[in-house]
Amino acid sequence: MHFVVCIKQVPDSAQIRVHPVTNTIMRQGVPTIINPYDLFSLEEALRWRDKVGGEVTVLTMGPPMASDSLRKALTIGADRAVLLTDRFFAGSDTLATSFALSAALKKIGETFGKIDIVFCGKQTIDGDTAQVGPGVAKRLSLEQITYVSAINEVNGEDGTVTLERRSEGGVQVLKTNLPAMITMLEGSNTVRRGRIDDALRAARAEIVSWNAKEAGIEDVTMCGLRGSPTVVKKVFAPSPRAEKAALVEVGATPAASAEALIEAVLAKSPKIEDDLIKLASGF
Amino acid sequence: MSDAKPAAPAAGAGRASMKKELPERFRNHKHVWVFIEMERGVVHPVSFELLGQGRKLADKLGVELAGVVMGAPGPDILHACQESFAYGADLCYTIENPVLADYRNEPYSKALTAVVEAHKPEILLLGATTLGRDLAGSVATTLLTGLTADCTELNVDDDKSLAATRPTFGGSLLCTIYTLNFRPQMATARPRAMPMPERKEGREGRIVPFAVDLHEQDIITKILSFIPDRDSNKTNLAFADVVVAGGMGLQGPENFQLVKNLAAVLGAEYGCSRPLVQKGWVPSDRQIGQTGKTIRPKLYIAAGISGAIQHRVGVEGADLIVAINTDKNAPIYDFAHLGIVTDAVRFLPALTEAFRKRLSPHTRDRMAG
Ligand SMILES: Cc1cc2nc3c(=O)[nH]c(=O)nc-3n(C[C@H](O)[C@H](O)[C@H](O)COP(=O)(O)OP(=O)(O)OC[C@H]3O[C@@H](n4cnc5c(N)ncnc54)[C@H](O)[C@@H]3O)c2cc1C
């Protein structure tokens, strides 16, 4: 079977710092990583490849340096990597991104074999929208199952997949037909460490690189800024609150401090007492 | 991916999407809509929060506010409409079909797309829940329109376009996003990001049934079963009136129990900052902040939390924020209302005890537990 995992290279958010004075992001020297949510999807694809046989292709759209993430994915165990890169893609919002990725996925299917499952990350840590997966599914008419906590069965013979999907109030157990687009929930599996032979293979592997034309995109007005219906008009820092916190004086003992704090709470917001009594009495 | 690309050069001239003139075919789009999310007969509270926000937008635009209610035929539909009216809707479009009993992307996105195409709203709002995000992404793609996720503020500009503000750059900055040349303008907001509006019992509205041709045999994805969360497993953090949370200032996983103890005495929910989840001290559904839950309690007590911007955006809706932090320069004191500069590990047990004493006349019957 053919599994394709869409990944994104993102700045390592743990290392992003905001300039204390100008409140702008300090991006210099921030290392990039594979979007952490994508790793659960990659792992799930690798698992099912190992179980039922087939291949895992990873796809990313981004600048040429995004090939670092593809190589990392190869190190973890993917079989093939495709980089979609072109200046026409710059400034894509989610609609334009799903357009470009869908074109590349079609091309991947034609070039390397029919795709059974497209995996996407649940969302990214930099954009946080969770919209690209559904966009890809809609454009390619794939069955769309997001927030998957477990895949129970992938059946190549009858072309079905059985899985568990998190909903707000519980878990839906679903069965659907392939091809499908799946996004995995974080923590749904444990991401493997690559093996030595994968690492060696990854170091030598050739990454397939396509520009818009090579990916079969004829109408580049659908890409990048031009293909993006949303426009970012303004970026600004959250406004600081006028007053700082009123500090309660620390007492001789923690118990005295505690009394003082409770008094301060009730002075600020007398209604709280009723609420606390209600909660304490179990209503 | 990012729909927030402030880094992209605003190369301006010639960019189709920057033109302010709305194409002819979208000029008859009117009114503000909210998708009313229902699961197993229960309306998700985020839908009411969106109605509250939608009401303001509709009033500013001088248009109507409509809810879209879909589900299996039955009394739940009417009930959801009445609730929507009580929270501010002027009318509800209803789509009743057995196929819509449980959420699946295909029938829901077909139904929502069809009613949008038929009645042409200018603004469509959905909750940023697992259902809402799944649905919004496909509907926006089918309609080829813009969608802004996780908005923390919604407004209309002088030229009547929707200004959707959301955190960007990992929460350190905010950006305002427009969908200038396409309709509807779509946006999602997370539960608790907007305040709950006042409920007006008995407020009335119109019900406009809408028929969509859906048949079970045409739907590919089948529901084998549904396993509801056991209530004990489900945290009510987002909707709690009182929340106590701990951060790295607690020093070690064992001290998180101090937070739980205080929460238990207060009948509160407990939560934490992100590093505690990353370290595996606390399960992820307890994380508060930009990548966790947004809360709007009446009282929020934060112990040993520095108040990083990503945490702040999740708690700013609280009525009263109380910080316990040893560093008097910690950023949390910039937005907390009250604070005490002391060691949380020593202070929390004393606070717990003091609250217990004060509240004990009211908790007697529960002391056994
Ligand atoms: C993309 C992105 C998303 C994020 N999302 C979230 C999110 O959703 N939620 C979130 O919380 N964070 C989030 N973060 C992380 C956030 O930036 C901070 O790193 C995090 O909130 C810090 O947690 P903390 O306050 O517990 O720890 P620290 O920043 O380490 O602060 C510990 C605080 O405890 C105080 N302290 C130390 N000892 C004591 C003591 N004995 N008693 C009392 N106080 C003491 C210290 O003075 C300090 O202020 C995100 C970061 C990024 C980049």
UniProtKB/TrEMBL annotation, chain A:
Superkingdom per UniProt: Bacteria
Domain Electron transfer flavoprotein alpha/beta-subunit N-terminal: start-end pairs: 22-219
Coiled-coil segments: none
SUPFAM superfamilies (alphabetical): Adenine nucleotide alpha hydrolases-like
SMART domains: ETF
Molecular function GO labels: electron transfer activity
Alphabetical list of InterPro entries matching this protein: ETF_a/b_N (IPR014730), ETF_b (IPR012255), ETF_beta_N (IPR033948), Rossmann-like_a/b/a_fold (IPR014729)
Pfam families: ETF
Full protein name: Electron transfer flavoprotein beta subunit
The species this protein was found in: Rhodoblastus acidophilus (Rhodopseudomonas acidophila)
UniProtKB/TrEMBL annotation, chain B:
Lineage: superkingdom: Bacteria
Residues reported to bind FAD: 273-274, 287-291, 304-311, 325
Pfam families per the UniProt record, alphabetical: ETF, ETF_alpha
Recorded GO MF terms: electron transfer activity; flavin adenine dinucleotide binding
Domain Electron transfer flavoprotein alpha/beta-subunit N-terminal: 32-223
Keyword Transport: yes
Gene3D superfamilies: HUPs, TPP-binding domain
Keyword entries, A-Z: Electron transport, FAD, Flavoprotein, Transport
Presence of the UniProt keyword Transcription regulation in the record: no
Biological process according to GO: fatty acid beta-oxidation using acyl-CoA dehydrogenase
InterPro entries: DHS-like_NAD/FAD-binding_dom (IPR029035), ETF_a/b_N (IPR014730), ETF_a/FixB (IPR001308), ETF_alpha_N (IPR033947), ETF_asu_C (IPR014731), ETF_asu_C_CS (IPR018206), Rossmann-like_a/b/a_fold (IPR014729)
Cofactor: FAD
Cofactor note: Binds 1 FAD per dimer.
Family: Belongs to the ETF alpha-subunit/FixB family.
Name used for this protein in its record: Electron transfer flavoprotein alpha subunit apoprotein
Species the sequence originates in: Rhodoblastus acidophilus (Rhodopseudomonas acidophila)
Organism taxonomic ancestry: Bacteria, Pseudomonadati, Pseudomonadota, Alphaproteobacteria, Hyphomicrobiales
